[in-house]
UniProtKB/TrEMBL annotation:
This is Calcium:proton antiporter. Keywords: Membrane, Transmembrane, Transmembrane helix. It is found in: Membrane. Residues 31-182, 218-360 form the Sodium/calcium exchanger membrane region domain. The chain crosses the membrane at residues 33-53, 60-83, 95-117, 129-149, 161-180, 214-233, 253-273, 285-307, 319-336, 343-360. The lineage of its organism: Bacteria, Bacillati, Actinomycetota, Actinomycetes, Propionibacteriales.
Length: 362
């Protein structure tokens, strides 16, 4: 009889820890221990999402991973907004923007560097990557840039009707893209086979798909992992903010911490795909996560704002808008040719480094 793997044990163990710590305000040592289980739950949840993704194939796999990560992100945001005694009016904005910068510059840049170094050029489908990037830009403009320029409410906020419109428009854009990706033009989002990558039975660059029983087990464990992540994030809400304040970082850096934790497994998955010469899959993960982060998080936060006290600040600061514009221009110039050199990936990674540094020292 074989021993259960860590990905099977971790979600259950995380739920046990959640039951023992729910409602507490842990100290430094306890918070560190809980954090280990939180990260483990995130990693195992995305692992099981990847197993299910293998079963359904591309581009459905990348879509499932992006949605799973976004569910985790939304849970973390709402948990921190509800559980915090401080000002969390800009937490959703900071987290969503951080997710966009990490995915568009970090995950995509890392994948391009790995693909270009290992195979000389990173090759992908410009129609698919370009369509995804276009949707990300439109979502970011509608939800993160426009609030800075509207006049119905003072400050970088939407009025109730504007927020409702932005939420509906975000869902519509995301739904249209999903239809395009999975039905209308699915072939644009499949990996480009240039004969240089490893082959397998299903041609998706991953291990052979699991059987129905394994996929169903992973689906159950995925749901358990998501519940554990959201619950443990609620428990960790105070220590995260206390830790950021203790090291002297701006309060907005809490959003960066959330995005970094949530997107770490996605980064690993994209790096693995790029190493197999499946850069299109990596870009599906990167841009799909950015899209889901904005297109699904904003509507959920809009609904949550009904019972959350205080304003909801969504408009980016001028420095953030500059970083967004530069990132978009760089991404467009990278995507259009359908292939990229190491230089393109490194430029994106430098932009990510600039974002992290300026988040600490604005």
């Amino acid at each position: 009889m074989s021993r259960p793997s860590w990905t099977t044990v971790t979600p259950v163990a995380a739920l046990v820890v959640l039951g023992l710590t729910w409602g507490s305000h842990p100290g430094v040592v306890a918070a560190a221990g809980i954090g280990v289980f939180l990260v483990g739950a995130v990693l195992s949840a995305v692992h099981h999402a990847e197993v299910v993704a293998h079963r359904v194939g591309e581009p459905f796999g990348s879509l499932l991973l992006a949605v799973a990560v976004t569910v985790i992100e939304v849970g973390l945001i709402v948990s921190l907004m509800v559980g915090s005694e401080g000002d969390t009016s800009a937490l959703a904005r900071d987290t969503v923007f951080a997710a966009a910068m990490i995915t568009v510059n970090g995950i995509a840049g890392l994948a391009l560097v790995i693909g270009a170094v290992k195979y000389r050029m990173a090759v992908f489908n410009p129609e698919g990557a370009g369509s995804a990037l276009t949707t990300v830009v439109a979502l970011a403009a509608l939800t993160l840039v426009l609030p800075r320029f509207t006049t119905s409410e003072p400050g970088p906020e939407f009025s109730s009707s504007q927020l409702a419109f932005a939420a509906v428009a975000s869902l519509a854009l995301y739904g249209i893209f999903v239809f395009t990706q999975t039905v209308r033009h699915r072939d644009f989002f499949l990996p480009v086979d240039d004969g240089r990558g490893p082959a397998d039975e299903d041609g998706d660059g991953h291990a052979d798909p699991p059987d129905d029983r394994a996929a169903l087990a992973s689906l159950v464990l995925l749901l358990l992992g998501l519940v554990a992540v959201v619950g443990l994030a609620k428990v960790e809400s105070y220590p995260i903010q206390d830790g950021v304040a203790a090291v002297g970082f701006p309060e907005s850096f809490v959003g960066v911490v959330i995005a970094l934790v949530v997107l770490l497994p996605e980064s690993i998955a994209a790096a693995r795909a790029a190493a197999r010469n499946r850069v299109q899959t990596s870009l599906n993960l990167a841009y799909g996560s950015a899209m889901a982060s904005i297109g699904l998080t904003i509507p959920v936060i809009a609904v949550a704002s009904i019972w959350l006290d205080g304003p909801l600040v969504l408009g980016l600061e001028p420095m953030q808008m500059v970083l967004l514009v530069v990132s978009v221009i760089t991404a467009v110039l990278t995507v259009v040719p359908g292939r990229a050199k190491t230089l393109h990936g490194l430029v994106h990674l430098v932009l990510l480094a600039a974002f992290v540094f300026l988040s600490i020292k604005p």
